[in-house]
Design a protein that fits this description.
The chain is about 55% helix and about 15% strand. The protein contains twelve helices and eight strands. It binds guanosine-5'-diphosphate (GDP) and magnesium ion.
């Protein structure tokens, strides 16, 4: 996980702690550093900001004999720098929200293949473990097999799955599912929506309608860590056209880079709330900025 980005930071720490870097030296490092960050899915603007702050940290840093101290000092400052991108965003916890709203309605957005259905199943498992009565809703009434896929997870997890015939207006499906959930005293309703391309106007309109009609407590965007810039673009479009409250980044276990997490939240100023770290039901982790930054600067 994040090996490549870790290496970028390790290199810069090594350079800055073995000799004193002047402004001119830094200018020479700058281009390479920018490219390395971008190659690791760090969005351009984020990379530029990181580099500017790095300059402040390392230019003129006096290297004394006790270089261990310099290294320690630099690590602390870098940690602060990276945390600055993440910790200013207002984090929320779906478990706590489920205690405050009954039933809690959460709609998941995202393009095909990012891991949306799997993530909903993982969250269903998490809620079940925490003793919340949970309903999964198949609001993708378009793609053949979409309902069956969710139903299969429901069966394995022992969670009911609300469906309506293919072709039904997804907004009506979600609306009806909330009536059903209230009647049957569910605590949490998790809605799987159709994932086509984020450039698909019809899909975006369909999602807007779900939001307009059912007023979910949270709209969560699911993106794939491995898609880098694409994930950032998806975040921008979904946030602009539908609205996004929080982000889940999947496939982090298979991501050698690491920049996607920094970049998506920077782009839309919304927090990453969970990360997917595998294909099993327990492979979901509450996102903790400190965990992320520690992994990058290990
Ligand atoms: N390694 C890994 N694979 C994942 C993760 N989340 C989902 N996947 C896989 O991604 C693929 C697509 O998942 P799916 O939930 O069907 O995507 P959807 O089209 O967005 O609903 C499946 O093979 C999942 O097992 C994750 O966190 N890590
Ligand atoms: Mg799906």
């Amino acid at each position: 996980m994040f090996d490549k980005l870790r290496k970028v930071f390790k290199n810069i720490i090594d350079v800055a702690t073995t000799r004193t870097i002047t402004d001119k030296d830094f200018e020479e490092l700058r281009e390479t550093l920018l490219l390395e960050l971008i190659e690791n899915d760090v969005a351009y603007q984020v990379a530029e900001e990181i580099i500017e702050k790095l300059r402040e940290i390392i230019v003129g840093l006096k290297i004394r004999r006790a270089s261990g101290n310099v290294k320690h000092l630099m690590l602390g400052k870098l940690k602060e720098l990276l945390l600055g991108f993440l910790s200013s965003l207002e984090y929320f916890d779906l478990i706590r929200e489920a205690r405050n709203n009954s039933p809690l309605l959460v709609v998941f957005l995202g393009v095909n293949g990012v891991g949306k259905t799997t993530t909903i199943a993982k969250l269903g498992y998490m809620f079940r473990v925490n003793k919340f009565k949970t309903l999964l809703v198949a609001a993708d009434t378009f793609r053949a097999g979409a309902q069956e896929q969710l139903a299969e997870h429901g069966k394995k997890l022992g969670l009911p799955v609300f469906t309506r015939p293919y072709g039904t207006d997804p907004a009506a499906v979600v609306y009806d599912s909330m009536i059903y959930a209230k009647q049957n005293k569910f605590d949490v309703v998790l809605v799987d929506t159709a994932g086509r391309m984020h450039t698909d106007i019809d899909l975006l309109e369909e999602l807007r309608k779900i939001v307009r009609v059912t007023k979910p407590h949270y709209k969560i965007l699911v993106v794939d860590a491995l898609t880098g810039n694409d994930a950032v673009e998806q975040a921008r479009v979904f946030n602009e056209k539908v609205g996004v409250d929080g982000i889940i980044v999947t496939k982090v276990d298979a991501d050698p880079k690491g920049g996607t997490i920094l970049s998506v939240s920077y782009e839309i100023k919304k927090p990453v709330i969970y990360v997917g770290i595998g294909q099993g039901y327990t492979d979901l982790r509450r996102f903790d900025p400190k965990w992320f930054v520690d992994k990058i600067l290990q």
